[in-house]
Design goal:
The complex is a heterodimer of chains A (557) and B (156). In chain A, a hairpin with a 5-residue loop joins strand 13 and strand 14. Chain A contains 18 helices and 20 strands. In chain A, helix 5 crosses helix 9 and helix 14 crosses helix 16. Chain A is α+β, with helices and mostly antiparallel strands and 557 residues long. The longest helix of chain A has 22 residues. Chain B has one domain: Rossmann fold (3-Layer(aba) Sandwich). Classes of the chains: A alpha+beta (557), B alpha/beta (156). Chains A and B meet through helix 1, helix 2, helix 5, helix 6 and helix 9 of A and helix 1 and helix 2 of B.
């Protein structure tokens, strides 16, 4: 893990002092609501329906056990005993007192964490995939460059008042598990035949009101130019992005308006001025940061473990969990474990109690090297577990309600906090997720259905990434009541696709039936072990529409 | 203009006898003395102010004739002025006074300073003396600035 040096530490503590002063001036009436707003947003503080919400960054999803314990402490002492892990590798606390925020930020600073730029019209938390550094299909560890980007973008004075929020993600594996195509800048890191690190730069992706997948703006960018190239994109955007309409202010709209070629030309011209300047990254800096991510001291193990093999045969429930929740590791004898935060109606997707957080921190130390990862699918990962320890870990995870064997299945629902908390939401998300989870509570059936991603957003802002769910559910407002629009065929990864709307929206009460009809259509048309998303692609929307709307009409009549 | 902070040799001073008059809109009769004029109405011997829509590159050939450039922040949340200032300093080589005007507030002053501004016409309903406290900002800047062209990784 990266550890702060004196500069990093000075920055977060000075930032806490600065914000403490700003909070005091706001509470004392010196700062107006309007003046305070961007200051608090850039410190992660939103005003929600019922209270302030604090969003804390988990840069590129990597957490140490002591950091997770600190998050548990904040949940316990300053909130109502739980936190919500988001789709962008952040954690949100929903019931925060404004006056206590500086103290919370000071506690976070002690463990090298912050909430800087987790909101506001600035560069947000840099994200990557949850299996960075351990995935079997990884080309190289994306975290050193992610950390370098984190530092560069933190309180970068030129880019704090952009037209709109700006999200950057980086990944470096065969599979794209970081949703690169839906970021303002998405970076694929790879090596050329000579071993040089290069970047493929995607730009203009994003969901929200106008969902667009990113377009390639550059191939083969040498890594030394990462910062200057990102700077060039940001400068073109800062100067020319629209500011007259919040819904047309993301970079994707600028890219679309100019066309990718003209936009690329602008960036290239800007970049020519700065590309060989002092922003060019040095080997020394890369090494300094990369040294923080050296692999831990793995034991030399056989890739097969006798005890683990026996357990697999003897215990079907364990085997099912292993099949869904355990990922291959690049080191023999090890695996990565996904702890599901989606047990069903018992807890909203992404929520963990302080007790669960403390438990996960303990397991990270007992069964790993003290590290935890946060996935954008809102689950937690223990990246380095010996196969021989999987059974013991599974047993503990089950006791804590974190052992549900549903990763990638229909009930592994990605959902925003929705209308229960969020001031922007048109509709609730959590009760919809819970109603679906309740309907599909038969694990055998879920495993038969196989991989299906189901994403729920409570409004157009698409925090639940509904456009890229195989099944997407979007909360909409119709004359003051809550309705839900359903899309099919969305996908993330290298074959990213945006889902298509199947027709008129549904009431909350209809949704479990609708999902059931969709799944039944799939199982009727499915060929052998075909994946849901492939069936949708092959047969199109019609068969789904027919069945869903025939049923809905039948009920109405 | 009054309510002004100016950096002279790196030291901040509060000015109450600034000779410049900001002319936001051209009337039939212009005030006397040195004026800060809109880009389209600039005339020799006066300063100029840029709106966020103005391209700084358009000043390139005129820089030698200018004695002051101001950049307007119609709202403190409009960040185009930061890029304009940074480019004027680092690309166009402007060495004269660079003044932030408009919605200029304490909590953005350090960012403005780092982007190359050296004078700050603090919004009139706010105390310039109070705004001085916002000038220093953080002791750490990771990236580059108009003041320090080397990013931190070349210095740490």
């Amino acid at each position: 893990m990266y550890h702060y040096d004196e500069y990093d530490r000075a920055l977060v503590f000075e930032r806490v002092a600065q914000f403490r002063d700003q909070v005091q001036r706001f509470m004392g009436g010196e700062l107006s609501e309007e003046e305070f707003l961007p200051l608090r947003l850039q410190n992660g503080l939103y005003l929600q329906k019922h209270a302030y919400m604090l969003r804390v960054a988990i840069p590129y999803g990597t957490l140490g056990a002591n950091q997770l314990r600190t998050l548990a402490r904040i949940a316990r002492e300053f909130d109502r005993g739980y936190g919500h892990f988001t789709t962008r590798q952040n954690i949100q606390f929903n019931w925060i007192e404004l006056a206590q925020v500086p103290d919370i930020l000071a506690i976070l600073a002690e463990v090298e964490m912050h909430a800087i730029q987790t909101s506001g019209n600035c560069v947000r938390n840099i994200t990557t995939e949850a299996f960075a550094g351990v995935a079997a299909d990884e080309l190289m560890d994306p975290r050193p460059l992610a950390e370098i980007l984190r530092q560069w973008s933190t309180i970068n004075p030129e880019f704090l008042y952009l037209p709109r929020k700006f999200k950057i993600a980086i990944c470096s594996a065969e599979q794209d598990r970081a949703a690169i195509m839906m970021h303002d800048i998405g970076l694929y890191l790879y090596r050329d035949p000579n071993g040089e690190m290069l970047l493929r730069v995607m730009v203009g992706g994003g969901l929200g009101r106008t969902p667009i997948l990113g377009l390639q703006i550059r191939e083969g960018l040498p890594w030394q130019h990462l910062l200057s190239y990102v700077e060039a994109i940001l400068r073109v955007y800062n100067r020319h992005g629209r500011r007259d309409n919040k819904y047309k202010a993301r970079i994707k709209i600028l890219v679309k308006a100019l066309g990718i070629d003209a936009f690329a030309h602008e960036v290239e011209q800007e970049w020519q001025h700065i590309k060989d300047g002092p922003a060019q990254l040095t080997d020394a800096e890369y090494q300094r940061v990369a040294n923080a991510f050296v692999p831990p001291s793995y034991q030399t193990l056989s890739d097969t473990d006798l005890d683990f093999g026996t357990r697999l045969v003897m215990d079907a429930a364990f085997a099912r969990w292993v099949a869904r929740n355990v990922q291959p590791h690049k080191v023999p004898g090890y695996a990565s474990v996904v702890l599901s935060t989606k047990p069903g109606p018992a807890a909203p997707p992404g929520d963990l109690t302080d007790i669960q957080m403390d438990a996960v921190a303990d397991w990270a130390e007992i069964f790993g090297f003290g590290e935890i990862r946060i996935a954008h699918e809102q689950n937690l990962i223990l990246p380095d577990v010996r196969k021989r320890d999987l059974y013991a870990l599974w047993a503990r995870a089950c006791e804590q309600g974190l052992g549900t064997a549903n990763i990638g299945l229909l009930t592994d629902i990605i959902a925003c906090p929705g209308g229960d908390f969020c001031a922007l939401a048109n509709a609730k998300s959590i009760p919809i997720a819970q109603a679906i989870q309740q309907r599909f509570d038969d694990l055998d059936y879920l495993h038969d259905i196989g991989d299906v991603s189901l994403n729920i957003s409570g409004c157009m802002n698409a925090c639940g990434h509904h456009h890229i769910g195989n099944i997407g559910i979007l909360g909409v407002d119709k004359n003051g009541s809550e309705w839900y629009q359903v899309t099919l065929g969305g996908a993330q990864g290298k074959d990213s696709a945006l889902g298509k709307v199947i027709g008129p929206s549904f009431s909350a009460a209809q949704i479990p039936d609708v999902i059931e009809q969709i799944v039944a259509t799939f199982t009727d048309y499915r060929e052998s072990d075909e994946l849901f998303v492939d069936t949708v692609q092959r047969i199109g929307l019609e068969p789904f529409k027919e069945r869903v709307y025939a049923k809905a009409e039948g009920e109405a009549a | 203009m009054n309510n002004l902070i100016r950096l002279v040799d790196g030291q901040a001073q509060l000015l109450s006898d600034d000779p410049w008059t900001l002319v936001r809109e051209i009337e039939d009769e212009l005030p006397t003395g040195p004026l800060i004029l809109p880009l389209a109405h600039w005339r020799e011997g006066h300063g100029i102010w840029l709106s966020p829509d103005d391209e700084v590159e358009s000043l390139e050939l005129r820089l030698g004739e200018l004695s002051l450039i101001a950049i307007d922040f119609p709202s403190f949340r409009d960040g185009r002025g930061y890029s304009q200032a940074y480019l004027l300093r680092t690309r166009l080589g402007w060495q004269g006074e660079l003044r932030a005007i408009g919605d200029v507030l304490r909590d953005q002053l350090s960012h403005m300073r780092q982007c190359g501004f050296d004078s700050f016409a603090v919004r009139e309903d706010k105390s310039a003396e109070d705004a001085l406290k916002g000038l220093a900002g953080m002791s750490v800047l990771y990236g580059r600035s108009a003041i320090e062209p080397r990013p931190l990784f070349r210095r740490r």
